[in-house]
Amino acid sequence: MSLRVGVIGAGMIGQEHIRRLTTVVTGAEVVAIADLATDRAERLAAATGARAHASGTEVIAHPDVHAVLVTSSGPTHADHVLAAVAAGKPVFCEKPLATAATDCLRIIQAEIAHGRRLVQVGFMRRYDDGYRRLKRLVDAGDIGVPLMVHCAHRNPTVPVSYTSEMAMLDTAIHEVDVLRWLLAEEIVSAQVLTPRPTRRRFEHLQDPQIMLFETAGGVRADVEVFVNCQYGYDIRCEVVGETGAARLPDPARPAVRGDARDSTAVVTDWRERFGDAFDAEIQAWVDAASEGTATGPDAWDGYAATAVGDATVEALKTREIVPVDMEPRPAFYTGAQQ
Ligand SMILES: NC(=O)C1=CN([C@@H]2O[C@H](COP(=O)(O)OP(=O)(O)OC[C@H]3O[C@@H](n4cnc5c(N)ncnc54)[C@H](O)[C@@H]3O)[C@@H](O)[C@H]2O)C=CC1
Ligand SMILES: O=C1[C@@H](O)[C@H](O)[C@@H](O)[C@H](O)[C@H]1O
C-alpha cells in the first residue's frame, strides 16, 4: 500500500514537493493538503485528487493520513511537527525545524519520549551527488585531516522582504548543516564580517556577508553569502586538509564554443541546482516513513543548525565572536547519519 501523505503549506516548495510526491517518487500519494490560503489548497487538491483541509491540525489528525510533510512558513513548523509526533506519524519538515532553539528541544524531547525516530529535516544537500562524493572522500582520509573549509552561497537576487538576518537563518543554514555533516563535528563559535554592500541591494540589507565558524576540533570555515550576486545560483565548497584539497563539483553542463569563446552555463535557481537531491531526499523519506520511522537529517541536526543560527545573528549585531549555546547531544541521536 502506498504511503498516504498530508501536506501542510502549499506555497513555492510545497507545490514542488506535491509534484515530486505525485509524479517522481514511488510509493506515496498525496491525500490531504492544507494552506492558510484555502483557495490554493482547494485548487491543488482538485488537481491532484487530494482533499483540501482548513488547517494543518486537521491534516495531522485525519486517520487517512499516514505521514505529514510540513512546507508552511518557518515560524509554524514547530507546532505542526510536535502535533505529528504526538500523533505518532512520521513527519518531513522543511528547514528550519523551528525558528527558536527551545522549540527544537521540545521536538527532541517529544521524539525521545515516543521512542523511535519520526522527524526528518529538509537539509537536501546531504542527498546531492557532488556533496556525497565530497563527504566520502573526506571520510576516507584522501585529503588528510580537514583544517579549513571555504564555502560560498550566491543567489541571483532576493525579494524586498529578505532581511540581513535571513542571510543566516534562511540561506547559510544549509552551509551550517553541510559543515557539521562533512566534518562530523559541532560548530562552537560564529563571527560575521560585513564587506562593502552591493549597490544592487535594498537599503535595509547587509549583502554580502562573510560568516566565520570554528568547530569543536578547531577547523575554521568561512561562508560567503551573497544573495544579490546577479549572475546565477552558485554554491561552492572546498575542504582543505593536511595532504590535499577537495572541491564540490559544479553541476555538469556542456561547454559551448562559439564567438571565439569557450563557455559553460551557470544555473540560476536552487530548484534546478538541487532538483535531483530533492528527489532523492523525498524518496528516502517516503521509504522510511512507510516503515513508520525517519532517516537522514534528524531533529538534533535541526536543533544544532538553529543554535548556530542564533549565535550568528547575534554576531551580526555585535560584530563579536559569539559562542554557540548548545545542549549535550542525547544518545538517541548518535546513530549513523546519512
Ligand atoms: N530546502 C530548500 O532549499 C528550501 C526550503 N524552503 C523552506 O520551505 C518553507 C516554505 O518556503 P516557501 O515555500 O518558499 O514559502 P511560501 O511562502 O511560498 O509558502 C508557504 C506556504 O505556507 C502557507 N502557510 C503559512 N502558515 C500556514 C499554516 N499555519 N498552515 C498552513 N499553511 C500555512 C502559506 O499560506 C504559503 O502558501 C520555509 O521554511 C523555507 O525556508 C524554501 C525554499 C527552498
Ligand atoms: O532554502 C533556500 C531558500 O529558502 C533560500 O532563500 C536560498 O538562499 C537557498 O539557496 C535555498 O536553498
UniProtKB/TrEMBL annotation:
The residue ranges of the Gfo/Idh/MocA-like oxidoreductase C-terminal domain are: 135-323
Task: Name the InterPro entries for this protein.
Answer: Gfo-Idh-MocA_inositol_DH, Gfo/Idh/MocA-like_OxRdtase_C, Gfo/Idh/MocA-like_OxRdtase_N, MI/DCI_dehydrogenase, NAD(P)-bd_dom_sf
Question: Species name for this entry?
Answer: Actinomadura miaoliensis
**Which keywords has UniProt assigned to this entry?**
NAD, Oxidoreductase
Gfo/Idh/MocA-like oxidoreductase N-terminal domain segment(s): 3-123
Q: Into which family does the record put it?
A: Belongs to the Gfo/Idh/MocA family.
- Describe, as the record does, how this protein assembles with itself and its partners: Homotetramer.
Give the protein's function. Answer: Involved in the oxidation of myo-inositol (MI) to 2-keto-myo-inositol (2KMI or 2-inosose).
Catalyses which reaction(s): myo-inositol + NAD(+) = scyllo-inosose + NADH + H(+)
Enzyme Commission designation: 1.1.1.18
- Pfam families noted in UniProt: GFO_IDH_MocA, GFO_IDH_MocA_C
This protein's name: Inositol 2-dehydrogenase
Q: Which gene encodes it?
A: iolG
